[in-house]
Amino acid sequence: MTRPDPLTAPFGAFALSPMAETFRRLPMAMPGDALRRSAESVVRRALMSGGRDIADIEVFPGQFARVHLRDNRCEKRVFAGSKSWDSAERRAIRDAMATKPAGETFVFVDAGANAGLYTLSVLADAAAQSRPVKVIAVEPDVENRRRLEFNLDVSKASAVTVLPYALGAEEGEGAMVQSATNRGEVHVASGSETGDTIRLRPLKAALAEAGTGRVDVMKMDIEGFEAPVLNGFFAESPRSLWPTMILLETRHEAAITDGAAGLCLEHGYELAKQMRQNAVLVLPTGDPS
Hints:
Layout: H1 18-25, H2 33-48, E1 54-60, E2 63-68, H3 73-81, H4 87-98, E3 106-111, H5 117-128, E4 133-138, H6 142-154, E5 160-163, E6 166-167, E7 172-177, E8 187-188, E9 196-201, H7 203-210, E10 217-220, H8 226-236, E11 245-249, H9 259-266, E12 270-274, E13 278-282
Parallel strand pairs: 3-4, 3-10, 4-5, 6-9, 10-11
Antiparallel strand pairs: 1-2, 7-8, 7-9, 11-13, 12-13
């Protein structure tokens, strides 16, 4: 049988058999994080053992994705672990959403959206809470953005604005450096690195283009470029535009006071939660705007 072309095949062309899909979902019903994660690992290895590298799945309730299992770590993890994948981070976003007054739109910025898994998670949570939502997904990499837009299309997501450039401290151009092993590690070049030329836009300009004057939560994962982007944003933007909550990767920092998280702390944010790889920072209630 000829293998479908993942670039053109409709969603469902890489669907699992009913038995394999039942097996994939088994860990979701297991109690306890440790047991669930162990089961996810077993299920993932078993379902990939025959050479499977792509699967069309319901990744979160009502949200669908074509996941690529060999070249993107987050897609591989969520394949059999959609309940455990970044569960503490996603819970923090979900809890922030739940505190909004009923009927008020929840505004989420997915900076470094990759294949759109955080965006899809937020859309699923908004549906579960009967909450209007506006998502701004920023993804400069051509292949990651293709996957993001495919997943949004098959999920019939209409509340998402996709911005096809990288965030920068100022308007200009940069280079996008690819990763040979993990598409989640593509990044804007620094130093002597070279890559494909991409557009850079400040975060303030990106938010204006997307038509929002406030942000409830921003997840920013732009592979080490967070500090210059945030430094420029804080310098030129009114506090009313600053996200109420920022989720940042901190696993490469020696201390929370280093890097982008430290910059947020300097500008009045407080550390609300520290996970193994990420930190949640929030503006205190009543912070002047």
